Amino acid sequence: MPKVTLTSHLIHQAGLENFPQALSISGTTVRQTVDALCEQYPRLRGYLLDDQGALRQHVAAFVNGHVVRDKTTLAQPVGDDDELSLFQALSGG
Amino acid sequence: MAAVLWVSTRKGLLRWEQRGSTWELAQTSFLGQNVTLALPDPRDGAIYAALNLGHFGVKLHRSRDDGATWGELAVPVYPEGEQLVTGDGKPPVPANLKMIWELEAGAASQPGRLWCGTLPGGLFRSDDSGASWQLMRGLWDHPDRVKWFGGGYDTPGIHSICVDPRNPRRIQVGVSCGGAWTSDDDGATWRCTAAGMFAEYMPPELRGEPSIQDPHRLVQCPAAPDALWVQHHNGVFRSTDGAESWHEVPNVPPSVFGFAVAVHPRDPNTAWFVPAIKDETRVPVGGRLVVARTHDSGATFAELTNGLPGQNCFDLVYRHALDVDASGECLAMGSTTGNLWITADGGEHWNQLSSNLPPVHAVRFG
What we know:
The structure holds two protein chains of two kinds.
Chain A: E1 3-6, H1 8-13, E2 23-24, H2 30-40, H3 45-48, E3 59-63, E4 66-67, E5 83-88
Parallel strand pairs in A: 1-5
Antiparallel strand pairs in A: 1-2, 3-4, 3-5
Chain B: E1 4-9, E2 12-19, E3 22-29, E4 35-40, E5 47-53, E6 57-63, E7 71-73, E8 83-84, E9 93-94, E10 99-105, E11 114-119, E12 123-126, E13 134-135, H1 137-140, E14 157-163, E15 171-176, E16 179-183, E17 191-192, E18 215-220, E19 228-232, E20 235-239, E21 247-249, E22 258-263, E23 271-275, E24 291-294, E25 302-304, E26 322-324, E27 331-334, E28 340-343, E29 351-354, E30 360-365
Antiparallel strand pairs in B: 1-2, 1-30, 2-3, 4-5, 5-6, 6-7, 8-9, 10-11, 11-12, 12-13, 14-15, 15-16, 16-17, 18-19, 19-20, 20-21, 22-23, 23-24, 24-25, 26-27, 27-28, 28-29
């Protein structure tokens, strides 16, 4: 299963202080993995995704260090050995 | 119990308490976070705080212990597939919650009811104290809604909600830029009630079109709910017939432009404004901060300046950053440059509580 890591800012904002350093979540695409993550941690959904299900404008996703460019469908495949990182996009200096 | 003032700022929610004749900062919540407004619910003492986190979206929290602890609630969500179509030619975009721009409690007979105005223009209702929200489809799906467009923000937004104290099924809202709207059936159906307002930012043939007006703030006198005041982009307007018609109040000194208006809770003829220079600069006229007050429905005004900066002033008071308490004598206002003032005598004398705050979005007694 792909591993998911979250930026500490997001963990703090969403009140998930016990979130593990990396969490194995099932999924074969970024979308499936994010959906499974949000099912396990429902509060995360509104922090990661906008009303229409796209990744928020100022949230960035990386697979093995490469940015996910399609933030709407999140259709990019992920494999069992991949690491999905969900970060805040730098903004405001 | 001490009087309390909630001050929503770019860097947190501040609770000020009156202690004797002075006010003191008693508590800071959400330090470092952008708190866009707060609602003290007079029915049960709960405090609601709306946040706009730069990265992670709009959030809503509630406290039941005067701000000591907070719990996160649901926020209004635009249904899947909804598009934002506007009247200014921008291409349609997915409808996403951008900001909670207004939050009001229902009547005492409606425990749990909250009204929420948002950017980009959806009105939502909760009947379970914010646990869930319902988009008011009658307004969102109204054919004239596609004429709305953004004013100060990129999208239209609902910034004012008045619940008629005589009949809480009657709701009136102000929209920038979309006019004033009235529902008599708990928000199910709506009609535009902005006749008499005019828009100088539109071509002449559209100047009087009700559903493109830009009321910056709409307030209602609780003791005389048919009396409403609007601070509009192009002037001040007043209605005495429940928003069926509006007439211009042209002589507000030193200018008719501004964002904020407050009406006396028992005297519909008394109202306060904080004028500024419009479009080009948005600063006080002549660098001098003035509160304009009328006691006679706008026939005459007094310029209240005692305790306010008389020169080199850049303060702008936004639409939610002026409030009057239940007595009608105590007012507070906060500015974009982090000043906070309070008056105990209807504005005759202002006392500066701080000059070191973050930008102030909203102030509210309660």
